[in-house]
Design a protein that fits this description.
Elements lengths: L18 H13 L4 H16 L4 H11 L9 H8 L2
Length: 85
């Protein structure tokens, strides 16, 4: 029987930051009823996507979603999913 390797998705990153920045971020995430880790993952995906030389249409779509100008996507995660990122 062929065994498949299970991908470990439970990797952690430890960073140092100003406590005030962390507190503001955590308060805002909580006020949006969103896990902080989910927001960090979205920020990381956005950072990666913007540096992979996306075309002008993709950049415009990402910026529109981040600015709340587009109602086609619920959030950047939905946009990335739709774009296959």
């Amino acid at each position: 029987m062929k065994q498949t390797k299970k991908k470990n998705k439970d990797v952690q990153i430890s960073i140092k930051m100003d406590p005030e920045l962390r507190n503001q971020f955590m308060e805002l995430a909580e006020s949006m009823d969103r896990p902080a880790a989910q927001i960090i993952r979205e920020l990381m995906r956005s950072f990666i996507a913007c540096r992979k030389m996306p075309n002008a249409e993709t950049i415009a779509a990402i910026e529109a979603v981040e600015n709340g100008d587009v109602k086609t996507y619920d959030n950047t995660t939905d946009l990335y999913h739709q774009l296959g990122i």
